[in-house]
Amino acid sequence: MAGGSHSGSAAGGGAPGLLPLLLLLLCAAAIIHTGDGQNLVTEDVTVVEGDVATISCRVKNSDDSVIQLLNPNRQTIYFRDFRPLKDSRFQLVNFSNSELRVSLTNVSISDEGRYFCQLYTDPPQEIYTTITVLVPPRNLVIDIQKEIAIEGEEIELNCTAMASRPATNIRWFKGNKELTGKSEVEQWSDMYTVTSRLVLKVGREDDGVPVICLVDHPAVKDLQTQRYLEVMYKPQVRVSQNYPVQGLTREGEPLELTCAAIGKPQPTDMRWLRVDDEMPQHVVVSGSNLLISNLNKTDNGTYRCEASNAVGKSHADYMLFVYDTTATTEPAVHGFTQLPNSAEELDYGDLSDSRAGEEGAIRSVDHAVVGGVVAVVVFAMLCLLIILGRYFARHKGTYFTHEAKGADDAADADTAIINAEGGQNNSEEKKEYFI
């Protein structure tokens, strides 16, 4: 009983003594695993296909232990400075007690993977480095839906970057302005083909502007391709006054106008006409020029130059107002209808009509105001004459006096005269009455 009790006490007391021993063994194992303070260092490698990859295995606190390099299949590439693997693309760059550095030329996708650095200690130490191979796009092509577009149309462009790794990011530019496309990615084995689609509404200002497809990829810089837009648009028309140069158009003086039109294709049909009236017989039209040698006020009106091509027709207007020879002040509204050059604004011909209409409306308002005032004055005078006539007609009557009082009872004319003269003594009694 006593012995059994002692034995159990010894066993129970010995358990705490084993814990320090286990900790000591674990520390010793850790020291052995780290190779007496030695440790391996390496870095991952990223390389473009066809370039050179360099793998470095380095040792800190070296004790002259052997270093070796293994491939992803765990075949020994180099053991110290000896190369057991029969692959001449691997070349020794540096060997010492603290480093083994090896280069791999003409890297391909098949070379990608983990490479192991080993240090022969007891037990051996091991660390791995990863080689990542980048593949730039094989080809970059822009495909355009329509080689020649018409102003206002929407066209589709597709840019394709083939067989890259990783997938390519495609960016679009029109001139210096970046645009947004929609990309689709297709994967074939370890390669990616990316196609970006761009829908673009074109105007005349886009003619001759480059559309650029640019690749954003870690394996390549400044890879891009471009196509120049070809846009057809209707004529852009402008009328200029050659004579008089920015002066008044007076009676008896000449007027010379020139019409210029730009379009794609170049306008071939140009003609002059007079808006809302026939062209005066003395006007001479020669091609794009219009000449009036002797202005008079019957020439007043709007003269229009029209030009057309395969896309459409446009025009520009010139408003002519002929002044007296004594006129010296330039009018507020006179001459050209100014038109925009940008196709992003209103239609060239439509805007010409609009502004010409505004100027014509101003002249119409001036004449209407004068005519209205004259009409009101005439109407007021007529009303006044009618009122006065009716007034005098209503107050017209008989005029009576009593100067011949007493002559009514006379038998003959002589007696009437005598009676009338006798009545003069009572002249103060004479009165006049208006009935």
Could you walk me through the main structural features you see in this protein, from its secondary elements to its overall organization?
By secondary structure, the protein is an alpha+beta fold. Helix content is 20%, strand content 39%. The protein is built from three helices and 28 strands. The strands form seven sheets. It has a five-stranded mixed sheet, with no helix packed on it. A five-stranded mixed sheet has the order 11-19-20-23-22, with no helix packed on it. A hairpin with a 7-residue loop joins strand 17 and strand 18 (224-228). The longest helix is centred in the C-terminal third of the chain and has 47 residues, at 348-394. The N and C termini lie far apart (176 Å).
